[in-house]
C-alpha cells in the first residue's frame, strides 16, 4: 500500500550472498549447515551433561548452561533463514518476520553481553574469595544473576525494534544483509522521515550495552590477575588461570567481532565486510563456545564420558 511516496511493505528481500556465484553459495550452504549442526549439538550436550552429572552442579556450569541455551536461540534466529536463502534462493521475509528476527537478535545479543559479565564475576568470586564462594554464589544468588543478565534484552529489543518499524519505508525493499539487522533496515526508511533521534538512541544504546558489561568484565579480570600474581607457586597460578581462560577466550571472540562490526567508521565498513564480520559472532562464535569449554576442561570431558557410558548402560566404568 502506498500513500504519496511512502510505502508500507508486506515483505522484505534479504540479499544475503546473492552476489556470489551459485557454486560458492552451495559451498557456503554446506559449510554453514555443518557449523549449524555442530553448534546445536555442542551446546545441547553442554546443557544435558551439566544437568545430568552432579559434579557439574556448580555456579560456573549453571551460567555455562545459560550461555549454551542463549547460543542455541541466537542460532535459531539467524541461521535457518540464511540456509534457506542459500539453498532455495528463498530471499523473501515478511514484515512481521523481519521485525521478529530483529527483536530476538537484539534480545539474545544484549543478554549475551550481560551474561558474559556475570560469568566473569563468578570467576572473580571463585578465585579471589574461594572459601566464601559457595556461600556468595548460592542457588538464590545465581538465579538472580541469571535473570539480571537476561532481562536487559527485553526493553532494548522492544524499544529499538518497535521504533524502527514504526517508520515509513520507501523505494526498494532489499535488505543488504543475510538477516534483518538495524543498520541495513534503517537505510530503507523514507528520506522524509526524521530518524535522528532513533540513530542517536541506537548509538548510545549500543555503546552502553557493549561497554557496561565490558567494563565489568575488565574490572573482574584486573582483580583476578592481581589475585593470581599473589599465588606463590607456578602450579597454583596455572590452575587458577585455567579456570577462567576459556571464558576469557570466549569474551575476546565475541567482543572483538561485534565491536569491529558496529564501531568501525562507516567509510571503512562496506556491506560485504560487515556480513563477514557478522558471521563471526552470529554463526562461528556460537559453534566455538562449546568446543572451547569442552576441549579445555577436563572436568567437563570426564563428565561427558560418564554421561555417555551411563546412557549406553555401561555401569562399570572408571569415573
From TrEMBL:
Coiled coil segments of this chain: none
- TM stretches of this protein: 27-51, 63-83, 103-124, 145-165, 201-228, 240-256, 276-295
Under CDD domains, the record lists:
7tmA_OR10A-like (cd15225)
The keyword Hydrolase belongs to this UniProt entry's keyword annotation = no
Record InterPro entries: GPCR_Rhodpsn (IPR000276), GPCR_Rhodpsn_7TM (IPR017452), Olfact_rcpt (IPR000725)
Q: Which residues form the G-protein coupled receptors family 1 profile domain?
A: 42-293
Q: Tell me what topology the record assigns in the membrane.
A: Multi-pass membrane protein
Q: What is its main location?
A: membrane
Q: Which UniProt keywords apply?
A: Cell membrane, G-protein coupled receptor, Membrane, Olfaction, Receptor, Sensory transduction, Transducer, Transmembrane, Transmembrane helix
The family database entries (Pfam families) matched by this protein are listed as: 7tm_4
Q: What are the annotated GO cellular component locations?
A: plasma membrane
GO molecular function annotation: G protein-coupled receptor activity; olfactory receptor activity
Cellular location(s): Cell membrane
Described purpose of this protein according to its UniProt entry: Putative odorant or sperm cell receptor.
PANTHER family, A to Z:
OLFACTORY RECEPTOR (PTHR26453)
Family, according to the entry, reads as follows:
Belongs to the G-protein coupled receptor 1 family.
Can you name this protein? Olfactory receptor
Amino acid at each position: 500500500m502506498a500513500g504519496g511516496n511512502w510505502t508500507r511493505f508486506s515483505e522484505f528481500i534479504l540479499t544475503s550472498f546473492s552476489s556470489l556465484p551459485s557454486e560458492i553459495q552451495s559451498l557456503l550452504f554446506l559449510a554453514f549447515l555443518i557449523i549449524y549442526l555442530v553448534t546445536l549439538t555442542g551446546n545441547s550436550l553442554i546443557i544435558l551433561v551439566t544437568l545430568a552429572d552432579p559434579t557439574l552442579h556448580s555456579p560456573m556450569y549453571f551460567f555455562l548452561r545459560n550461555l549454551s541455551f542463549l547460543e542455541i536461540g541466537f542460532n535459531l534466529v539467524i541461521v535457518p533463514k540464511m540456509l534457506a536463502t542459500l539453498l532455495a534462493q528463498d530471499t523473501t521475509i515478511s514484515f512481521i518476520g523481519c521485525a521478529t528476527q530483529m527483536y530476538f537478535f537484539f534480545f539474545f545479543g544484549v543478554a549475551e553481553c550481560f551474561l558474559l559479565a556475570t560469568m566473569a564475576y563468578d570467576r572473580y568470586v571463585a578465585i579471589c574469595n574461594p572459601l566464601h564462594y559457595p556461600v556468595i554464589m548460592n542457588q538464590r544468588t545465581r538465579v538472580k544473576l541469571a535473570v539480571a543478565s537476561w532481562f536487559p534484552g527485553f526493553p532494548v529489543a522492544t524499544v529499538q525494534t518497535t521504533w524502527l518499524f514504526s517508520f515509513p519505508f520507501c523505494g526498494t525493499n532489499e535488505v543488504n544483509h543475510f538477516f534483518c539487522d538495524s543498520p541495513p533496515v534503517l537505510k530503507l526508511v523514507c528520506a522524509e522521515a526524521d530518524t535522528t533521534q532513533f540513530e542517536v538512541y541506537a548509538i548510545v544504546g549500543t555503546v552502553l550495552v557493549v561497554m557496561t558489561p565490558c567494563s565489568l568484565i575488565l574490572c573482574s579480570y584486573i582483580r583476578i590477575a592481581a589475585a593470581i600474581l599473589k599465588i606463590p607457586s607456578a602450579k597454583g597460578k596455572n590452575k587458577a588461570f585455567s579456570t577462567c581462560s576459556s571464558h576469557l577466550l570466549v569474551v575476546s571472540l565475541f567482543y572483538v567481532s561485534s565491536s569491529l562490526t558496529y564501531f568501525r567508521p562507516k567509510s571503512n565498513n562496506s556491506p560485504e565486510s560487515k556480513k563477514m564480520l557478522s558471521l563471526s559472532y552470529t554463526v562461528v562464535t556460537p559453534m566455538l563456545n562449546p568446543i572451547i569449554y569442552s576441549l579445555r576442561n577436563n572436568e567437563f570431558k570426564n563428565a561427558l564420558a560418564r554421561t555417555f557410558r551411563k546412557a549406553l548402560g555401561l555401569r562399570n566404568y572408571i569415573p
